[in-house]
Amino acid sequence: MKRSFSNLTPAAEEGEIDITPMLDVVFIMLIFFIVTASFVKESGIEVNRPDASTAQSKPRANILIGINDMNEIWINKRRVDASQVRANIERMHAENPQGTVVIQADEEATTKTLVAVMDAARQAGVYDVSLATEER
C-alpha cells in the first residue's frame, strides 16, 4: 500500500513557524552585549592596597601583577615564581606594546618582592610601572 502526502491541506501548511525574525533579534542582542561588555583584567588575588592621596587611574593597564601578604606573585589568576615574572611580562607586553604594568601589592608584602617585580618589568622593556593604591 502506497501513501502519498502530496495532498496536504492548506491548514497543515500554515502550521509552520518562521523563526528567522527571532534569530535576527537574538543575534543583534548578542552583538549588543559583546560590544557593551567591559572586560576587566585581574591579577587573580584580593589584596589590601595601601592608601594614597595622589592616586590616579591607569586606563591602559593591561599587565596586572598581584603580590599578596605572603609575598606570592600572581599574574592572570595563577601563581608565578619570581624567576618567571620577566618572561610573563615580556609575553604580555608583546601582545600589547602600549600597555603598562600595574603592581597590586598588599600592604603587608615586603619591599624586596615589590622591587624584584619592578626590576623584572624594566628588564622586560616596560618602563611605565605603577603601584595600585586605594584613593583616600
How would you characterize the overall build of this protein?
This protein is of the alpha/beta class. It has a domain at 51-135: Nucleotidyltransferase, domain 5. Helix content is 33%, strand content 19%. The protein has four helices and seven strands, in the order ααββββαβαββ. The chain has a five-stranded mixed sheet with strand order 4-3-2-5-6, with helices on one face. It has a two-stranded parallel ribbon with strand order 1-7. A hairpin with a 2-residue loop joins β3 (73-75) and β4. α3 packs across α4 (111-123). The N and C termini lie far apart (88 Å). The mean pLDDT is 80.
Strand content: 15-25%
What oligomeric assembly is this protein in? single chain
**Tell me, what is the CATH class of the domain at 51-135?**
Alpha Beta
- Broad shape: elongated
CATH architecture annotation of the domain at 51-135: 2-Layer Sandwich
Helical content stands at 25-40%
Question: Element order, helices and strands?
Answer: HHEEEEHEHEE
CATH fold label of the domain at 51-135: Nucleotidyltransferase, domain 5
Number of H- or I-type helical stretches? 4
N→C terminal distance: 88 Å
Q: Provide the gyration radius in Å.
A: 27 Å
* Biggest sheet details: 5 strands, mixed
* Class of secondary structure makeup: alpha/beta
Give, in spatial order, the strands making up the sheet with the most strands: 4-3-2-5-6
Provide the low-confidence segments as ranges.
Answer: none
Mean pLDDT over the residues: 80
How many beta-strand segments? 7
Subcellular location: Cell membrane
Protein name: Biopolymer transport protein
GO biological process, one term: protein transport
Family: Belongs to the ExbD/TolR family.
